[in-house]
Structures are given as C-alpha cells and as structure tokens.
C-alpha cells in the first residue's frame, strides 16, 4: 500500500495562540493528488479537519493555519495528513508533537534603559515573553545584544557589540560612555521548564546614549533648581513674617466689671415690690 507523498512536515505556534503547519509535496507525487490535514490534542478526542488551507501554484494543499491554539504542559498533539488520489487506498502521514516544543516565543516585553552618567553604567530591564502556559520568570533565559552605533558627526564608523546569555530580568551595562550612542535588543529561550528550546523573536531595538542622556540631565537639573529656589523663597518669607508680626496676647474679660449696676437696682426693686404685695394680702386675710 502506498504512503502519503509528503515530506518536511513542520508546525510552529506564534503570537501565543496561532499555529501554522506546512509540508512539501514529494516530487514523485501524482499530479492529481490532494492533501487533507487533521489534528487533535488528546487520544480520546476525534480528529478535527483543517478549515484554512495553504495552497501551492497547482492548487494542492501544502499547509494549514489554526487559531485559538492552547498549549497545555506536557500535552501531545496528534497530526494526520490524508492523500486523495483517484480513489486509491493510501496510508496517511502521522506525526506526534509536544506543542510547547514548537512555540516561537514572543519578544521580551517592556524593555527599558536607565543610565547614570556618574557611574558610567546603565540598568536594562524587561519582562518575560507572553505564553499561554508559563507564568514564571525563572523559566526563561535571555540573549542580550548591546551595539555601539556609528557616529557620522564624529566620523566614527566602527561599531562594537556586547553579547551576553543571562537569567533574570535585568542587566547592568557598565561600559557606558555618555558621549556614545547605543541600542539593545533581547530574545528568550527555555531555562529548565516546559518551554521551547528554540530562541524566540528579538525585541524591537531600544536606543540610548548621548541624546537621551543629555535631554534627561538638562530637564532634571532644571527641575531640581526650580524646586530648590522655591524652598529658599518659602523659608525666607516665613522668617521675615515671624520677625515683623508682634505677638498678640489675649486679655481675659472681667465678667463682673461688664455687668451694669442699673440692672442690679432694677432687679432689687422688682423683688421688693413683689414682697410687699404678698405681705399686704396676708394682712387682709387675717
């Protein structure tokens, strides 16, 4: 019985959840042959047929595109390619793959560079690449390339590179020259976890050096000067105010002094008349 005439079957997962599977048609394959891909992620599942084929100039299927692919740790995927050729019985091509092994890692995220002119060093920081199945920083190691760029203004054409393989999410570049211009890019791979051994995609180069440092330093110095001047002015105003404004001593009120003597007399007369009237009433009753 004939076997499906394909070769170089390869699958790649990229951008976290997209997968492409491709193959080459054998040169001895029949011209009227057509190929159909099926796959599943568990032995107990049914095979699912490809819905988005890649075709060659002869209209033959030479690959398939998948979306919403989820990688599960230590989970195998099963692929099957059938060949249709004039109703003949042909054995399918079969392949079993661990999905995490075929993932193309995304670039490390949020690459930043902070340089200090005094110490002639820069701290480069980043975050791990995005994946659908790994969320631990320890699972990745990185290749970092720092390139000193040519300077047309100074007629410097020579460039140099610093390459390092490191773990962790930061790196100290201690050969920094404030008068030079640099760029840095980073990519990731596996570090003793269920992650692809292949190097991932490079991050977009981040430039740093002379122009960036100059602008940052000028702004920082201006800001510090403005804050210092404001504080000095504030303390001067407070000092002058405390020296010129006399202390105000509050005098307590004499409550007895404020009471009018007329009030006492009026009140006494009222009490006296009321007493005399009561006495008169008592005498008549007797």
TrEMBL record:
UniProt membrane topology term: Single-pass type I membrane protein
Occurrences of domain Fibronectin type-III (ranges): 107-213
Keywords attached to this entry: Glycoprotein, Membrane, Receptor, Signal, Transmembrane, Transmembrane helix
Top-rank taxon: Eukaryota
Ranges that cross the membrane: 219-242
Compartments (UniProt record): Membrane
Full protein name: Fibronectin type-III domain-containing protein
SMART domains with a match to the protein in the record: FN3
Principal subcellular localisation of the protein: membrane
InterPro entries hit by this protein: FN3_dom (IPR003961), FN3_sf (IPR036116), Ig-like_fold (IPR013783), TypeI_recpt_CBD (IPR015321)
Lineage: Eukaryota, Metazoa, Chordata, Craniata, Vertebrata
Gene3D superfamilies hit by this protein: Immunoglobulins
GO molecular function, one term: cytokine receptor activity
GO cellular component, one term: external side of plasma membrane
């Amino acid at each position: 019985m004939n076997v499906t005439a394909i070769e170089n079957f390869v699958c790649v997962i990229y951008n976290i959840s997209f997968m492409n599977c491709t193959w080459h048609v054998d040169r001895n394959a029949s011209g009227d042959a057509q190929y159909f891909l099926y796959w599943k992620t568990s032995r107990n599942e049914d095979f699912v047929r490809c819905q988005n084929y890649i075709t060659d100039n002869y209209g033959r299927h030479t690959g398939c595109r998948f979306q919403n692919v989820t990688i599960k740790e230590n989970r195998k995927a099963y692929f099957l390619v059938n060949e249709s050729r004039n109703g003949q019985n042909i054995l399918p091509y079969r392949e079993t793959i661990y999905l995490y092994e075929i993932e193309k890692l995304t670039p490390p995220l949020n690459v930043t560079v902070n340089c200090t002119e005094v110490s002639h060093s820069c701290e480069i920081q980043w975050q791990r690449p995005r994946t659908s199945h790994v969320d631990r920083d320890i699972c990745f190691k990185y290749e970092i390339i720092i390139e000193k760029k040519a300077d047309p203004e100074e007629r410097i054409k020579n460039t140099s590179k610093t390459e390092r393989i490191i773990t962790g999410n930061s790196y100290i570049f201690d050969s920094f020259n404030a008068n030079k211009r640099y760029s840095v890019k980073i990519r990731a791979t596996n570090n003793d976890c269920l992650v692809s051994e292949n190097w991932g995609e490079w991050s977009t180069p981040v430039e740093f050096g002379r122009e960036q440092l100059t602008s940052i330093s000028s702004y920082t110095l201006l800001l510090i000067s403005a804050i210092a001047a404001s504080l000095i002015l504030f303390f001067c105003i407070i000092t002058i105010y405390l020296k010129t404004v006399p202390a105000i001593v509050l005098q307590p009120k004499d409550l007895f002094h404020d009471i009018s003597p007329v009030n006492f007399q009026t009140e006494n007369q009222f009490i006296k008349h009321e007493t005399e009237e009561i006495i008169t009433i008592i005498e008549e009753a007797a």
